[in-house]
Specification:
This protein has 242 residues and is an alpha+beta fold. The protein has one domain. 29% of the residues lie in helices and 34% in strands. The chain has six helices and twelve strands. The strands form two sheets. It has a six-stranded antiparallel sheet, covered by helices on one side. It has a six-stranded antiparallel sheet with strand order 4-3-6-7-5-8. Strand 3 and strand 4 form a beta hairpin. Helix 2 runs antiparallel to helix 6. The longest helix is centred in the first third of the chain and has 16 residues. It is globular, with a radius of gyration of 17 Å.
Length: 242
């Protein structure tokens, strides 16, 4: 079973404070251990909201908001892209929405934190690709587990194939409804779990890890270790679509 473990933005992240070296070191150890066990699949951190873009379709019209703040932060899936600019990422996201054909829909696009942003490497010279996460927000249909139509699935498969050929697509995953997920609130070293379904969160996603484990219980145990490193934090655990 694959689970996406997503931690939320903190005031320190939103203020753009320098990265905490202890957190970087301890998280690096946890991830290295999880990789060695064959359980770590993928992960990334996101830059603060001022660097993100929100695309929201209503009645066929797309509203683009720069630097959105948290709202409606419950996800149905994500796509990671390698592009030349945020404008290119926006263009691909528009095509994802068109292929989906679901009408009212919402996506956030966020630049990924790179190793040089954390002081772990020098930034390469020249034109450096921009890695972004396109976060597809949940809605009533995704939360009840509705499947896309055959036509929508065909359009999306064709688009994903085109994106792969263009060298843009890195990974794409859908999430099962929050009703089979869990939310952890960690405060003062105390862990409080809420089983799904759970309401939308005002805090935006700040980063995630995808792990391969045998059960939700095992995913929750790993998440508690993850939260102990991050401190006071909210973390969602969601099962990835097979």
């Amino acid at each position: 079973m694959l689970f996406m473990v997503m931690h939320k933005v903190t005031p320190e992240i939103e203020e753009g404070l320098p990265p905490n070296t202890r957190v970087i070191a301890e998280m690096g150890k946890l991830i290295a251990e999880t990789i060695e066990q064959g359980k770590f699949q993928h992960g990334a951190g996101l830059k603060r909201s001022v660097e993100r873009v929100r695309l929201r379709w209503r009645a066929g019209q797309c509203e683009v908001t720069r630097g959105p703040k948290g709202e409606h932060e419950l996800l149905a899936g994500f796509t990671q892209l390698k592009v030349k600019s945020m404008e290119e990422a926006i263009a691909w996201t528009r095509r994802i929405a068109d292929a989906e054909g679901s009408g009212d829909v919402e996506f956030d696009i966020g630049p990924v934190v790179e190793r040089w942003d954390l002081g772990l490497a020098d930034k390469p010279a020249g034109d450096v690709p921009l890695h972004v996460l396109v976060l597809r927000k949940a809605d009533e249909a995704s939360e009840r587990g509705a499947r896309p139509s055959a036509a929508a699935s065909s359009r999306m498969q064709a688009l994903m194939s085109e994106m792969q050929q263009a060298g843009v697509l890195l990974v794409a995953e859908g999430l099962k409804p929050s009703s089979i997920g869990a939310r952890l609130r960690s405060s003062g070293g105390k862990h409080t779990w809420t089983d799904g379904p759970f309401a939308e969160s005002k805090e935006m996603i700040s980063g995630f890890s995808i792990i391969k484990v045998d059960s939700l219980a095992e995913a929750k145990a790993w998440t508690e270790r993850y939260a102990e490193i991050l401190g006071d934090i909210e973390v969602d655990v969601r099962e990835v679509e097979a």
